[in-house]
Design goal:
about 325 residues, Thrombin, subunit H, six-stranded antiparallel barrel, five-stranded antiparallel β-sheet, 27 strands
């Protein structure tokens, strides 16, 4: 497993320490900051615990399929961007933006249950070009994303020294520039570091609103969007169904701790699911999803949507 340490997390001018309890922290302003992630050689699972700041936030107007009217005609979405729904029945839904013109956002797919007056944020995506390390990754290092339907896509890094350029380049399977390949909020990936250990500095704003991510029917890598590593599997994965498995992997992906979802209502423990280990003798809802490291979720052959809770709650 990669290791990480808080680098700088600021809110209202004061540094935040990791909380003793796994509860969201109430803040008056959206915290910005970053953290150093130490990445050894070989295979590691990583996730980005930050988002980029919103370039627009406000209510939506008329909705027609994948077209959404917003209250500005000045919005730069030249970089890959997405809409995040902040309230209403579609709370937490994330959809990429195709284009913007004359106050109308064109989305890649319609947002089910989005209603006029619901609030959204438009944010630039974190992309592969944002993932940089010191020293630079070695040529033939790679990142692999695993889709919820069992598909995967791998991108290969070519260092600046190898190319004779100031900095390296990520390339797809056709050896075309893949710097704009997006990393969705909450999406984990596997990094194969082909060289010596490196450090990565990831930064941005912390999550102050839930984010939904689709999982299954195959396995999916899901991060907690919490740079303090204080979110539990019980918080993040409570809306899975009985039979789902959540694996937390150790260093080098050579070992893991597996937690099995049981129906809470059957046990008289409320709604959703609770988690136990292979002995089925103790509950493990309190197990933490490590900072910068995703859990591997196998939802039991069904498609589910996980709602990653906000790690910070605005006070206004």
């Amino acid at each position: 497993m990669s290791s990480s340490r808080p680098f700088l997390i600021l809110a209202a001018g004061a540094a935040l320490a990791a909380p003793l309890a796994a509860e969201p922290i109430t803040v008056s302003t959206v915290p910005m900051g970053g953290m150093v992630v130490e990445v050894p050689s070989g295979l590691q699972m990583l996730s980005m615990d930050f988002q980029k700041p919103a370039v627009f936030q406000g209510p939506v107007g008329t909705i027609s399929g994948s077209s959404v009217v917003i209250s500005t005609e000045e919005l730069n979405v030249s970089a890959p961007s997405y809409v995040q729904v902040l309230d209403g029945d579609a709370l937490g839904t994330v959809v990429s933006v195709s284009s913007f013109s004359n106050g109308v956002l064109q989305l890649e797919t319609p947002i089910v249950d989005l209603a006029e007056g619901d609030s959204i944020a438009v944010r630039p995506h974190i992309t592969l070009s944002d993932f940089s390390t010191t020293p630079e990754l070695s040529t033939n290092s790679s990142i692999t994303f695993y889709g919820s339907s069992g598909t995967f896509e791998t991108f290969t890094f070519f260092s600046g020294d190898f190319l004779g350029l100031p900095e390296g380049v990520w390339a797809d399977s056709n050896f075309e520039d893949a710097g704009n390949a997006v990393i969705f909020p909450g999406e984990g990936f596997v990094l194969n570091n082909s060289g010596s250990p490196v450090t990565a500095l990831v930064s941005g704003v912390v999550s102050t609103s839930p984010v939904k991510i689709s999982v299954g029917p195959s396995f999916t890598l899901v991060g907690a969007l919490n740079p303090l590593g204080s979110s539990t599997i019980g918080q993040v994965f409570s809306n899975l169904t009985e039979g789902a498995i959540v694996d937390i992997y150790g260093a080098g992906l050579t070992s893991s701790d597996s937690y099995f979802a049981l129906d809470a209502a059957t046990l008289g423990l409320g709604q959703g699911v609770v988690f136990t280990d292979s002995q089925f003798e103790e509950l493990f809802d309190h197990v933490l999803v490590p900072a910068s490291t995703p859990a591997v979720v196998t939802p039991g052959g069904v498609q589910r949507v996980v709602s990653i809770p906000a790690s910070y709650i605005p006070s206004n």
